[in-house]
Amino acid sequence: MKVCVKRKLFVPAHLGYRERQMGAHIKPNSNLLIEIELMEVLTRIIDASRRHIGNQ
């Protein structure tokens, strides 16, 4: 995905909140349509000598 690009994600109810209601706007068994936009990409250099299994 490129910076400043928008994508719409469809999440069917069985993969989302299922029978649970989330707040006042997401009813039980609702399909979700989520729009995201990549604003920027941040990177960092990880020093391999300081990296241990289990640390993130």
From TrEMBL:
Its EC number is 5.2.1.8. It comes from the Bacteria. Gene3D superfamilies: 3.10.50.40. It catalyses: [protein]-peptidylproline (omega=180) = [protein]-peptidylproline (omega=0). Coiled coil: none annotated. It is an enzyme of class 5 (isomerase). Belongs to the FKBP-type PPIase family. This is Peptidyl-prolyl cis-trans isomerase. It comes from Pseudomonas fluorescens.
